[in-house]
Specification:
Elements: H1 2-15, E1 21-27, H2 34-39, E2 43-45, E3 50-52, E4 56-64, E5 73-77, E6 84-91, E7 94-101, E8 117-120, E9 126-134, E10 138-140, E11 142-146, H3 147-182, H4 185-204, H5 207-212, H6 217-242, H7 245-248, H8 250-257, H9 260-271, H10 275-302, H11 306-329, H12 337-340, H13 342-408, H14 410-426, H15 432-475, H16 483-495, H17 498-529, E12 538-540, H18 542-552, H19 554-557, E13 562-566, E14 574-576, H20 578-597, E15 608-617, E16 620-627, H21 634-638, H22 657-667, E17 671-677, E18 681-689
Parallel strand pairs: 13-15
Antiparallel strand pairs: 1-2, 1-4, 3-10, 4-9, 5-8, 5-11, 6-7, 6-9, 12-14, 15-16, 16-18, 17-18
Helix pairs in contact: 1-3, 3-4, 3-13, 4-6, 4-13, 6-9, 6-10, 9-10, 10-11, 11-13, 13-14, 13-15, 14-17, 15-17, 17-18, 18-20, 20-22
Amino acid sequence: MKRIFLINLLILLSWTAHAQLSIATFSDGKTHSESEIIGLDYITEKKGVANFDNGSVAYVKLIVDAEYANEDRRIFLSYALLDTIRFYRREADGLHLILETGQAYDFNTRAYESSDFVFPIKDGAQEYYFEIYSHKPVVLPFQLVERESLSATLSNNDFFFGTYVGLIAVMFLYNLVIFFLTRDRSYLFYILYLLTLGLAQAALFGYTDRFLFQGFPAFNRIFAVLSGALVAIASIFFINNFLRLKTKAPFFRKLLFSVVPLDVVAIILLLMGYESFSYKMVNMVSLVGSIIAIVAAVKLAQSGFKPANFFLLAWSVFLTSVVIFALKDFDIIPYNPVFRRSMLFGSSVEVVLLSVALADRINQLRREKEYSQARALEIARENERIIKEQNIELEKRVEARTMELQEANEELQVTLDNLKETQTQLVDAEKMASLGQLTAGIAHEINNPINFITSNIKPLKLDLDEVYTIVDRFSQLPEDCKPEELKQAKASLQEFDYDFLKEEIESLVSGISDGAVRTSEIVLGLRNFSRLDEDVVKKANLNEGLDSTMILLRNKTKDLIEVVRDYDDNLMDIDCFPGKLNQAFMNILNNGIYAVNAKRYEEGEEPTLTLKTRMVDSEMVAVHLIDNGIGMSEETKKKLYEPFFTTKEVGEGTGLGMSIVFKIIDKHGGRIEVNSELGKGTEFILFLPIRQPNEFA
């Protein structure tokens, strides 16, 4: 390693000491004849590196002093991206073409097996002429070097680039293995970026001409521009994935991907022959893309997104190396091996930093996933505990109400027993979340008629006691009672106000009957909502299922929400699991009630739920559940059926309702369509087949 360092130091010093050449340059963008070349008015460059715009025809006149001119020295041109180079030596009889080379020629035309260009000279002071053309920028760092020094220079160039290729290859293979193990697309985009970056650097330093595409000069000539466009596209996909722009910064994602079509257009123009314009376009698009990426990374870093800091560090190192590489071509900084290899150094540091950052990002994502899973498990356990407590409380309330109704009426006792049985059937994995929310409402609805019956029983008993008293008085009269005794008995009847008593008894009995009917309706709704045979396919009327569901929700909608029923009277009964469909209706309608209650309505606007059924065709029916509540965003609609996803406040929902709905409808072979707009409301359309397959029937 010490030897290599000393050799490089000597080369670096030697490059700064090559002042043996008198260089004059000229470019007018035209091709000249031999006589014109000799007669051109050259613009003398005393020092520095001559450079011209891409698409130029440049002419260079080199005068080698006699004391430095010998056959052991060579003219060295350390710039690989030149299409055509014609090398002339001036003799007494005119110009002699010594060598014709460049990227437009086969690699075998070169005097040395080198990615750069080497030209021989003769002893004694000589005038040499170069005619140079390229679609890319023309940079001419001419030097006169000893043959031994040249060999060391070429060897060191190969050594440094070989080291760079080795680093890229190691990082490529390492991340390729990680990709196959994890199937994480981040690594796929990164290895594509590494591949295109390595090829672009190889093209920039002329190694693709030498090793990859030898024998294809036409392709070599355009590959530097092509690889630049490809690395730009690959970097955009990698940056988007690495910085998670889709979720973290969607605006910058759109901006970044907007430049991809421009790179594609540049590639098409390149293949059509517009090489110069394509080169400029690729450079401009890459500059714009880099600015967008840096601004996005700065915004994300300010928000606390750790991978953005890694990206800024790595990208800053690489862009700094690009700036240094460009400045040496304009003679702002010295043209020496260190600055010429600045992009190799910068990109090497960049790929290492990005690889470390990628590993750190993956670890961060894994930690976030583990936290989310743990949180979801915690929520599930808490929901299970709450549901168990609610079911225990429900059992206690049902038992208490059952005992009260037993004392009042035998029929009511049977009804309450059926209610208890129905409630027990509802306690399963899919209905627990809905049942816990309904407990308070059901208890309230049942309590009202029970209280009404209970309050009527006592005055009814008092009235009946009076009737019994009257009957007893008349029954005590002898069969042959005297008219006076009969008259006294009739007089006592007036004391009791018999007409009023009769009217009051009828009223109390009517009230008790109404309470029993109301209770029966509630119980019937529960029985229709959760059927004992819910795991058996049978025919059911969807209109009745919707009505039974709304009975259970009446406590939430009464005097608050207008319920509109628009049923198809010709709706056919369908093969289904009635209990599970009722559960789906319940979950959707509960969400609709929540959405309606969460909205602030304008004057004249009423909160409304609409229930609509329609025949779609002979094989399908549709159930429309519509509310004019707060509505949903597009992002919410995308996540609607994900387990544990909810937009409700903490404690308001479990996030399982719509996931259960999706599974129920899917089990029936149906589908769900959702139409929603923020602030306008939501419409769920459930499409259900009329007939189920034989395996369910």
